Amino acid sequence: MESECIIMCLIYIERLIKVTKGRFCIRYDNWRPTVFACMILASKVWDDLSMWNVDFSQISPAFDLQRINELELAVLEALHYEVKVPAGEYAKYYFHLRSMIARLGFYDKTNVSAK
Predict the structure, then answer these.
(1) What predicted TM-score, i.e. pTM, was given to this entire model?
(2) I need a labelling partner for 54 at 20 to 30 A (CA). Which of 14, 41, 64, 73 fits?
(3) Cβ(38)–Cβ(24) under 8 Å?
(4) For the segment 61-93, what is each residue's pLDDT rounded down to a tens digit?
(5) Which runs of E-coded beta strand occur in the chain?
(6) Residues contacting 59, CB < 8 A, separation 6+
């Protein structure tokens, strides 16, 4: 997966919380399947050649193919299949996360690769 999928995953999770008007919240018992499903979705939207759900089930034995399909469908339905992330929204999240990392002292300018 491309690193950009992490930002898109965050966007999808925040959209889930917003669309459910806070009824859905991240808890200790649902954060793994939520992040996993949103990462899969982000990969499929971002990557030109994303893996198939069967491939994801082989790398993560905690989720079998049927469960992955159910999770993906649940996220898609909750988001009303609105998975496009406009460049401006992506940039807002990217720079916000980058500034948070810098404030926390995790940003190392010597280890940043130019793309």
Answers:
(1) 0.85
(2) 14
(3) no
(4) 899 999 999 999 999 999 999 999 999 999 999
(5) none
(6) none
